[in-house]
């Protein structure tokens, strides 16, 4: 104990190593008090180590930044501080003034450090959000980082009221006046000021230490992710330099068409013909006009494209090292780097390289889907005449095109199934989703890129998010009703709803449409719908998806209702909507303006009732669910009756006069349906019988 002289750079106390047993008063020089993330400097008259805990390791390292001297005192508890001040009455005003200065500095350090932590957290979360898209851009496979899901932002302290911080800052601003006129009056005033400010900056110091721990944990949990992001950002920067002509880049696609044709193994005649077609197509600046020459060229490319796709596809089934150009061909219809453009070629290259299948099994590229058909993991889709594979074969047999024996041989032939799917769903669906049927070509062309590819790219993640978003509004959109029966436990029949997620197939084009290919597989109503969308969507994707789900609603209702789909005596979504649109002029519930608008809408959609419904469904999901009215009273009632909003949205709209009565009727109807199911569950539970999942799940479904 006593006077200690320190050389410049000398450590007085080392954080984590030295044990607190003393407290010092700095009598000369300047000391730095620091932790790994921040530091403050202390001048003469400052208590050093006052926020440390006696008997515990130091939290802060204390270092001389110039020749300094401190006077050391024993430190067993905070009660030692007043004793030290009383033993030095002459310097008590200086000690009091420096205590307010230290408190103000610690407040500033806390604010700065908290802002840094928030910035660090926000940057990590922003990177995590961008990560999947950046992987696509640079051709990396998306990795999982579950440890990031548990990270929460730091919470700002509320243990120190704002008035106390303002008080500290005010003392600091008036330091000279206080030091001359207040602190010298009595040593106890100086002690009171020292202890008051101590309580404040000690609490803040504790919060600073908690922030330090948060940052250590944050760094530990994000090290792997940050390392990955650093590598990706480096690649992205190199990619941008390459695009700007500042670097060679690492993506080299040269003479892709030759690679694709060679891989497909087509004859020299077919290869030469297709090469000539693509050369003519590239050379024609007006290749999408309506001239006979341009139309014939596009038609020839269409016909030959699939003749090349099929043999390339067959070879790929036994190839573990498919060339990247061929993968781009399968996924995007890419055939030529000049036709695609250098920048687009690089993006497509990286997208194909980084692609991973949908782990949820809801979304497939057309290549993956054709593979499932060939492997007989899925049955072929219906053709343009709404015939499934067995129906098509029977029709061929009945027309005399094939014999009975030939039909039986073809029924389970994977090659024939593949041919059927490729010529129907693939070829027709590719043209349908492109949007401009008369100008369609199946090859990737930069002229069709109307949005940045990374924005237009439809990934499995995006589709699954759209599925969940529509369920959060129209919760029963994908539900099919089924019957459960188990006489052994006293259940004669219980109707339950089963949610069946549609299959989405990504067509290899830059297009503007999404389409429902079929609502069920064959005649089984509990099978998955098949939907198509361009892998690069140039329109508003959210609206395209909502329209698609609305079309599914309509077609599924028609399938369930059968011949009664437009029979108003058997109320359903389609029958009620058809009746509403057919007889709107006589409907007294509609105003003159409503009727005029309906007349315009019917004309706009060529009197197609389904298209009018889909447009209304878009307004219902996008605007009405948000409390913004777009529909007339009659349309709103039909939609809410057959496509009710989820409970969360119903609760938000409960006070909306346009929905109050509809919601009350819905709740009463659901209550009547749920009551016998609830009674059944109670009865089974009371008797010790396991409640079947179908019954338990239906009660939960009715609560949605």
Task: Provide a concise account of the structure shown.
The protein contains 25 helices and 14 strands.
Distinctive features:
elongated; 704 residues; 4-stranded antiparallel beta sheet; 11% strand; alpha+beta; single chain
Please tell me about this protein's structure.
This protein has 704 residues and is an alpha+beta fold. Among the domains are: 99-180 and 206-250, no CATH class; 256-448, no CATH class. 55% of the residues lie in helices and 11% in strands. The chain contains 25 helices and 14 strands. The protein has helices spanning 80-86, 92-138, 162-173, 175-181, 187-243, 256-264, 268-283, 292-316, 324-332, 337-340, 342-354, 366-374, 389-398, 404-411, 414-434, 453-456, 460-473, 541-561, 573-582, 592-604, 609-622, 633-642, 647-653, 660-686, 693-702, and strands spanning 2-6, 11-13, 22-28, 31-34, 39-42, 47-48, 61-64, 68-74, 363-365, 479-486, 491-499, 503-511, 514-518, 530-537. The strands form 4 sheets. The chain has a 4-stranded antiparallel sheet with strand order 1-8-3-6. Strand 10 (479-486) and strand 11 (491-499) form a beta hairpin. Helix 2 (92-138) runs antiparallel to helix 4 (175-181). The longest helix has 57 residues, at 187-243. It is elongated. The model has no long low-confidence stretch (mean pLDDT 89).
